[in-house]
UniProtKB/TrEMBL annotation:
SMART domains with a match to the protein in the record: Ald_Xan_dh_C (SM01008)
GO molecular function: iron ion binding; oxidoreductase activity
InterPro entries referenced in this protein's UniProt entry, alphabetically: Ald_Oxase/Xan_DH_a/b, Ald_Oxase/Xan_DH_a/b_sf, Ald_Oxase/xanthine_DH-like, AldOxase/xan_DH_MoCoBD1, AldOxase/xan_DH_MoCoBD2, AldOxase/xan_DH_Mopterin-bd_sf
Taxonomic lineage of the native organism: Bacteria, Bacillati, Actinomycetota, Actinomycetes, Pseudonocardiales
Domain of life: Bacteria
Organism for this UniProt entry: Actinokineospora globicatena
Pfam families in UniProt: Ald_Xan_dh_C, MoCoBD_1, MoCoBD_2
Positions of the Aldehyde oxidase/xanthine dehydrogenase a/b hammerhead domain: 18-122
Name of the molecule in the record: Xanthine dehydrogenase
Keywords: Molybdenum, Oxidoreductase
Length: 681
């Protein structure tokens, strides 16, 4: 009886693909009204006049929310949530009003009938890495310092026989989950119910209760299904507060609010661009003597977000002289946020291309060069790695991919090359509680977790079944509801490891209390916290990404016929959902490499290609052969489950592998994403 490790299809998979699963916007409520957002069309200043007469006169319009005309919200850490508190505008696209109407069409139309006057201030939305007002953030999101220095990189660079000193850059990328952010809000007496598309129902409850001056038990958040999030749904954004305020304005009438695709490019965060000044110094054998990176990004003047792209360089390779730095420019732009593998994803672009450049310069195979620079312990902390199987990933990947005999070749009109890059992502856990109740012969697990389409519905019962020692079909589960015990956000690749560890403890407690023959109503709880597990070890998942790239000799059209990744991510609970996480991440990495770039026009302060016609993402035709494998890795130190998290590592390193392969094919070294054909000509 071993459910863990089984290739189990997703629970509700059929309901989802047949359109029968109910998402937040589709919640079955009576007599719903619809909310449309009014957005600022200037980048900085304030609203001087707002005339809603014509909009209110439109038949079907119920009410309009305007700046200063809503309840006084509580001051909270996140200024994004302080909606409509005053007439100040901090970025173009900021919400400055909302119309509630009988239909979504009427609501949207009415927003166009609102007449606005502005006082316009000069704005500054132009990001460059050589601005003279760059500043050093206080800390990274992990609490780690913004800058680290060991030894003397400058001297090492001056004295080493081989150095790499280049600037690499990644583009602004926008999270574009299939399901846009959406909320259905309903007030029942003094209780607020939100069906919200979110990565964490408890996080939404905590934040909304605080900002609306409610007790947490007055807010219930429900979200059984999520059509993707990638970090943009990792915390509530302004529109969720608007939905709550709109519903409160209409007693007993629920309100639906769904963001348009264009609004997804303004209101819910994005991955800011990075400019990575990367330096390597090495001796004749390829042993690194220095490794250094300064990563510079923009953030919003409204709220600081640090893209911690210099962080992975701290632990990736051994070198006696090291320096990592983060610099920010605070601009009049929308607020950036987490996007799949924040920090590591962009941060493993520059250094992994630089390593490839060093390998080329030294005439050493890029895999051998990486192996030669494996650290014994975490170079930053001095702690041992709980497990580190990067070398095994590189070796197995090389075998599977056919890395040997990799001379670049020409096939007809196509130049063909191959490339490799390493991947890394931290293995953390968070806090969660699960309950298990015996009911009509079934074991009912409840936990306020979220399933972004990734498989939590499916893998948590597998974990429970094994720990209880019962067949999988006897385990039922409820997730995505604050009525269930507290669980952390589905973010940072911590979901399965955190919630699974709580389920494990709950199941063991249940067995200890009730044995193997429970009676109706028996119930037990179990919790997991980021306990002592990480104190003594440095905990990361690793991977190796391989790419084949073909470039047309005349037009420089780029194709990626093959991607292959091998990962070491601890215990894999379900190979089917795991493979889909890995290949999904790799495909998103391919998309980042070849297509994705949000163009911000500094004259206006907003992203101009704000739809999926202009913001290109990889299609099925781009991703022809994407394969993921993993090492059977046992890690007793990382958490009770031995799982490291797999949601993000698949995107890490993919773009570097593709750029390295393009260089191998053509001899042209591109250091700026996306890799478009004009850069190869
Ligand atoms: Mo992920 S960017 O931690 O939701």
């Amino acid at each position: 009886m071993n459910a863990i490790g089984q290739d189990i299809p997703r629970r509700h998979g059929h309901a989802k693909v047949t359109g029968n699963a109910t998402y937040a916007y589709e919640t079955d409520v009576d007599n719903a009204a619809y909310c449309a957002l009014l957005q600022a069309t200037i980048a900085k200043g304030h609203v001087t006049e707002i005339d809603i007469t014509d909009a209110l006169a439109l038949p079907g319009v119920l009410t309009i929310l305007t700046p200063g005309d809503v309840q006084k919200l509580a001051p909270v850490d996140n200024p994004e949530l302080a909606v409509l508190q005053d007439n100040h505008i901090a970025y173009r696209g900021q919400i400055i009003g909302a119309v509630i109407a009988d239909t979504s069409e009427i609501a949207r139309h009415a927003t166009e009938l609102i007449h606005l006057s502005y006082h316009v201030d000069d704005h500054d939305s132009a990001f460059t890495a050589d601005r003279d007002d760059l500043y050093t953030p206080k800390a990274l999101v992990t609490g780690a310092p913004a800058d680290t220095t060991t030894g003397d990189v400058d001297t090492a660079m001056r004295t080493a026989p081989h150095t790499i000193d280049h600037t690499y850059s990644t583009a602004t990328n926008h999270n574009n989950p299939l399901e846009p952010h959406a909320t259905t809000a309903l007030w029942q007496d003094d209780t607020l119910v939100l069906w919200d598309s979110t990565q964490g129902v408890h996080a939404v409850r905590t934040d909304l209760a605080e900002v609306l001056r409610l007790r947490p038990d007055q807010v219930r958040v429900i979200c059984p299904y999520v059509g993707g999030g990638f970090g943009a749904k990792g915390e509530p954004h302004a529109h969720v507060v608007i939905a709550a305020l709109a519903a409160r304005a209409l007693p007993c009438r629920p309100v639906r609010l769904a963001l348009t695709r264009a609004q997804m490019f303004t209101l819910v965060g994005y991955r800011p661009p990075t400019v990575q000044h990367t330096r390597l110094a090495a001796d004749d054998t390829g042993a690194l003597t220095a490794i250094a990176i300064t990563s510079t990004s923009p953030t919003s003047a409204m709220r600081e977000y640090v893209e911690h792209a210099a962080a992975p360089t701290r632990m990736m390779y051994a070198a006696p002289h090291r320096a990592t730095r983060h610099r920010l420019a605070a601009l009049d732009i929308a607020v950036p946020t987490w996007m799949r593998a924040p920090g590591e994803c962009p941060g493993m672009f520059g250094p992994e291309v630089a390593i490839d450049e060093l390998a080329t310069a030294l005439g050493i195979d890029p895999i051998d060069l990486r192996v030669a620079n494996e650290p014994e312990v975490d170079p930053e902390t001095g702690k041992p790695f709980s497990s580190r199987n990067l070398v095994a990933c590189l070796r197995q990947g090389a075998d599977r991919f056919g890395w040997a005999d990799r001379a670049p070749r020409r096939e007809g009109d196509w130049l063909v090359g191959t490339g490799v890059a390493a991947a890394v992502f931290p293995a953390f856990t968070n806090r969660a509680t699960a309950s298990i109740r015996y009911e009509r012969g079934h074991y009912v697990v409840e936990i306020g977790a979220a399933d972004l389409g990734t498989g939590a519905w499916t893998v948590l019962p597998q974990i429970a079944a094994d720990a209880l020692g019962v067949p999988l079909h006897l385990v039922d589960i409820g997730i995505g509801d604050t009525a269930y015990p507290y669980a952390s956000v589905a973010g940072g690749s911590t979901g399965t490891a955190t919630w699974g560890s709580a389920v494990l403890v709950a199941a063991e407690t249940f067995r200890d209390k009730f044995g193997t023959d429970p009676t109706e109503g028996d119930e037990a709880e179990g919790s997991h916290d980021t306990g002592p597990f990480n104190e003594h070890y440095s905990t990361y998942a690793f991977g190796a990404q391989f790419a084949e790239v073909r470039v047309h000799a005349d037009t420089a059209e780029i194709r990626v016929p093959r991607l292959l990744g091998v990962f070491a991510a601890g215990r894999i609970i379900n190979p089917r959902t795991a493979r889909s996480q890995f290949t999904g991440g790799m495909t998103m990495g391919l998309s980042m490499a070849l297509h994705e770039t949000s163009s911000l026009d500094p004259r206006f302060g907003h992203v101009i290609n704000h739809d999926l016609a202009e913001y290109h993402i990889a299609s099925c035709a781009d991703a022809t052969d994407v394969q993921a494998y993993w090492i059977d890795e046992e890690d007793p130190h990382v958490n009770p489950l031995g799982a490291k998290g797999i949601g993000e590592i698949g995107i890490v390193g993919t773009a570097a592998a593709i750029v390295n392969a393009a260089h191998h094919a053509t001899g042209v070294r591109v250091r700026d994403l996306p890799l478009t054909l004009d850069k190869l000509l």
